[in-house]
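Subject: design request, 146 residues
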């Protein structure tokens, strides 16, 4: 059933114009709102994924910084930290790509997000913990909600 927006008269779904006042009825209204709901429902995953990616990048920069500081002071294993920072940087970029992709294809986007989260966690562990958590949550939400 559709209701006239002008006079409030109840009209059948087939009617193009109001039976009471003759005003044109917007029948595609419910279809339009449905499409919009589907479109906006991936915003949470995208925002979480991008946030996770940004935190991952920050973690990568911190790891870089500590790595280069360690190299300057001749600390052992410092160059490893720098290398892991580069890996984390790449993982964060992949995570952001996954976050953008999740709006187009939630399944593939979600898998990309989870892979980037695990990758980030392996790369820089504690530095990437927050970013990895956000990316992982975004990925899981993308896969669960359908
Ligand atoms: Zn009417």
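Subject: RE: design request

Done. Sequence follows.
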């Amino acid at each position: 059933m559709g209701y006239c927006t002008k006079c409030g008269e109840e009209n059948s779904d087939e009617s193009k114009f109001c039976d009471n006042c003759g005003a044109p009825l917007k029948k595609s209204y419910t279809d339009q709102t449905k499409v919009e709901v589907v479109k906006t429902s991936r915003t949470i995953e995208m925002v979480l994924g991008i946030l996770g990616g940004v935190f991952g990048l920050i973690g990568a920069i911190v790891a870089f910084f500590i790595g280069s500081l360690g190299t300057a002071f001749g600390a052992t294993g410092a160059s490893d930290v720098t290398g892991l920072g580069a890996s984390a940087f790449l993982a964060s970029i992949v995570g952001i790509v996954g976050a953008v992709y999740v709006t187009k294809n939630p399944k593939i986007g979600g898998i990309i997000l989870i892979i980037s989260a695990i990758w980030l966690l392996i790369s820089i562990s504690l530095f990437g913990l927050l970013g990895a958590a956000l990316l992982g949550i975004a990925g899981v939400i993308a896969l669960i909600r359908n």
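The CA atoms of residues 28 and 34 lie 10 Å apart.
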